[in-house]
TrEMBL record:
UniProt-listed CDD domains: F-box_AtFBL13-like
PANTHER family reported in the protein's UniProt record: F-BOX/RNI SUPERFAMILY PROTEIN-RELATED, FBD DOMAIN-CONTAINING PROTEIN
F-box domain segment(s): 4-52
This protein's name: F-box domain-containing protein
Highest classification ranks of the organism: Eukaryota, Viridiplantae, Streptophyta, Embryophyta, Tracheophyta
Species: Gossypium gossypioides (Mexican cotton)
Pfam family, any one: F-box
Amino acid sequence: MCVEDRISSFPDHILCSILSFLPIKEAVRTSIISNKWRYLFASISTIVFDRSLLRGLTDRNVDSFKNFVNRLLKFPDQVSLDCFRLHEIASWNDGDHDFDVSGWICGAVCRGVKEIDLYLDNFCHTLPALLFTCHSLVTLKLNAEGSKIEVPSDVCLGNLKTLQLRNSVVDGDSIHRLISNCHVLEDLAFIECFLAYAGALNIQTPSLKRLVLDFDVVEYRDFNYVVVINAPNLVYFQYTDAVAEGYALCNMKSLEKADISIYRFDSSDCETSATHLIQGICTVRSLSLTVDEVIFRTCRLPIFHNLIEFEYRGLGFNGRETWLVEFLHCAPNLKTLTLNFLVVAETQWKVLLMEVPSCLSLHLKEIEFSCFDTHMIEMVNYFLDNAMVLKKLIISMDLLTWIQKAEASSQLLKLLKSSNKCLIVIL
């Protein structure tokens, strides 16, 4: 029976696109199919090198492997690259091998690469300066675990839209130098990074739409710096760190969602600084907030006129019910409330002598207790008693035993509801 090879009749650019979805080893193996396929793998637009390529690599074929990678990346007549990904780089240079990783990165840059994704764990070399002047680059992701990102003085990434640094040591000057030369940057993320030697963290990017600042919170770090953000088109903002010395957030009127986690290390003016941070995002529509104590105890909170979704993730502290009600007074149009207390403490909801927030009477439609504990019965009763237009109350009891769930469910279903339309959902 004669079987027609229809795939081989496709144009070369379609075949190369298909090969780009395969692991590099599988793409190379297609070279034995026929003469047409022999060199197609050399023109793939996505190159991914990971630890699996080193499996079975002996001293005899190390040089052959090096030559293969050099030919794949460094030949000038090859097509441009859509993506170059190199992961777990420590295993590539283990003392016995001397792979030209910097040369490979430069090879990808010279091929007009659009996306570079590097996992540089314990990389002992400086990143090539050519990487920071790549005009074709649209996405740059660097995971430099155990390494410091050295940004050269000459930086020009005119088409970069996404920049993500993970597990890296960065300083304020390098950040400013890098960001200020990315004129169309839309997505900026520092994830589990260590901020060192910073007098100021200065981010002023008109094109920025998404910003993630997630820094390692360690006691020996210096928090005497000022965070300056000027991003008029910012839509999403995530901030995780100890409270800095000061905050200057302006032009945040486009902000839709914010996720703020702030912690306190010995700071004489912690409450004022934290309040300035919150004031800078007061136009947000959806807010997730984590605090480890009432750092806003004496400072006046702004009014969140646009806030319709609020998630509060808080550690246990005395007086949290008073603070939470005070916050609800500042969110007059709130519709959805999620409560996630990471540590349960005794509360005084029964004797709470505060005016009921207007959002409970007029707008709040859904409340969720994502980590319910038996100590929260009073809290649930407070909201059921005062939420006049509530439609759904969701209670997650994943932390309780079956016996505790049965007892708590029985108590909850006996509570009176001010809203006749309220449905209680127990998970």
